[in-house]
Amino acid sequence: MVLNGNSPEADEVYINQILLIRRANTPTPTSNATPTPIPTTPQPTVFVPSRTAIPTKTPLPTPTPTQPPSTTQLIFGDSKKIGLTMAGVSGIGLLLVIYFGFVKKPR
């Protein structure tokens, strides 16, 4: 492709495009003899100690005393109870608005 003025990465050839093709180089004879490998004598494996620290025992956990819940935690700690209380108070407020706004007329 370079001989024809194209990019080396180009891979497209079009119809009626004139291409220049050069002759292949004459191969040079090479020796096919492979050298005989020299046998090696096996050596004993050398033990290399690791640098990892020796593991130690983890101490057993000790019990931690737990404080009893405070009054605030007892009152506001249960979200279901708080939600139901808020819904009840909102319902009572809605009933009062309806009663005093629409039902009971001022005289």
Write a structural description:
The protein has 107 residues and is mostly helical. It has a domain of 29 residues. Helix content is 29%, strand content 0%. It contains 2 helices and no strands. The protein starts with 70 loop residues before the first helix and ends with a helix. 0% of the residues are buried. The model has no long low-confidence stretch (mean pLDDT 81).
The pLDDT mean sits at 81
SSE order: HH
**SS-based class:** mainly alpha
What is the helix fraction of residues, given as a range?
A: 25-40%
Largest sheet: none
Tell me what portion of residues adopts beta-strand conformation. under 5%
Low-confidence stretches: none
Number of strands: 0
Distance between the termini: 106 Å
Note the quaternary state here. single chain
Number of helical stretches of at least 4 residues: 2
What general form does the structure show?
A: elongated
